[in-house]
Amino acid sequence: MIFPIGEPNTAYARYFIGNSYLAPISREQVNVSNVTFEPGCRNNWHIHKATKGGGQILVGVAGRGWYQEEGKPAQEILPGTVIHIPAGVKHWHGAAADSWFAHLAFEVPGENASNEWLEPVTDEEYDKLK
Question: Which domains does the chain have, with CATH numbers?
Fold first, then answer.
């Protein structure tokens, strides 16, 4: 891991199953954070909203994780994997059950951008992933 793990992600802990860590990398042109997940940790389903632009880009940097859009199969994320998430897409991301995982999260600038946190990813949904 070449980026800092950061501090426990207490501000967003209610939207995660398991423990995650947050390290701000840049706040200049766009917000970039390193998010590290312990094995089995994942965030709730959520939607990045914006009236124009917006969304998120994830870049895997360590370990093995998952990304899933509603209604689609989960995608494995490994170091170097790039995931483009347009505004308005319901999704979740997190670590594989047997691996720590870290990704850089880039906030795509947008007008009236916000984040809507939704229901947790159930153990039944998560346990189907291999």
Answer: 7-127 (2.60.120.10)
